[in-house]
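hiii, so i know i said id send this last week but things got crazy w the move. better late than never?? heres the sequnce for the chain we talked about at the cafe, plus the structure i predicted for it. fair warning i was half asleep when i ran it
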Amino acid sequence: MKQWNETMQVLRALEALRGTTRRTALATVVRTSGSAYRHEGAKMLVCDDETSIGNVSGGCLEADVREVAQRVIASGISELRTYRGGSDEVAAWDMGIGCDGEVEILIARADFDCAQELGAIAEQVRYVAITRIDRAGTAIDPGRMIVTQHVTSGTLGDAAVDASILTAARANWVDHSASRIETVNGVRVFIDAVWPPPQLIIASASDDARVLARMALEVGFRVVVVDRRKALLTRDRFPFGVDLVVSDAEHVHEAIRIEGGAYAVMMTHSFADDLAYLRAMLRTNIRYIGMLGPRARTERMLVQLEAEAPLNRDRIYGPVGLDIGTDGAEQVALAILAEILAVESGRQPRSLRDRRVAIHQMDA
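okay and structure toks below
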């Protein structure tokens, strides 16, 4: 989720620098092993004035990466750096890698045209960016191919390689969504899979909804705020980058393109409005529908809806959020987002202290 927004910020910065005298290098995490703070696809853009956007660790590898980036900018020779945590878990974490982890980072000049990538992001279209990493340590342009389901641009410097990579990318389009290194016809490439993050629909433009929208955007969701009260849906109230939609529940399907795998939270503080939006969301394949308010209130709604038609309660979370003890809009938003993230990752919420496997490893 973080990768989408980070990639967008990096590409927009690159586009803004086009036509100037500024030179840049892009550092990309291409492989991790063991526990790692950031994962494949994490990016940091470094300018020749040492300013940067994004990060590739918890903050402690960045100084070295910036130094390497200045060398790459000056020489044109890309570098593939490996950072190892070793057996000292405390030292590994302090380095920003993770416990007993290893991170491989490609650092290369960033002088490519990013128009197609920015277009895909603007249209919320998933794509893969493919870069040769077998040319690290040379001044040869590693090349860059951008592949969507229907459009391809760029080159890796060899027509036969391009054709093989494109065939492999198309064959794995649905099955492999994670960024990874692959070897195709003897050529080692990094495939950066850039997938739009989940959509979060917030049915309310009230004050506490503003807090949830802001925090959800920072976490990485694509946020849509919908309310029938037009006066509340203003950029003064929502100055950050969320979509604002004026619609009552009856017409919400026409006003919003509701995507599969989306999340929704009903928090209008009006029983009638929450019930109406809940009824509308239940007609979709939204995976999670959160209901703000007491359990008895949600139960009244569900009983009423069950009298109208059969109802599957499995995707309804009411009261919404994890049981962490909350006081105020910020803590409520934190509890809601923590629950949604757990659902998104297929995790049962619990203290990390109680896990017996690595933090980023799924339980057996």
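btw Confidence is low (pLDDT under 50) at residues 87-99. thought thatd interest u
miss u guys!!
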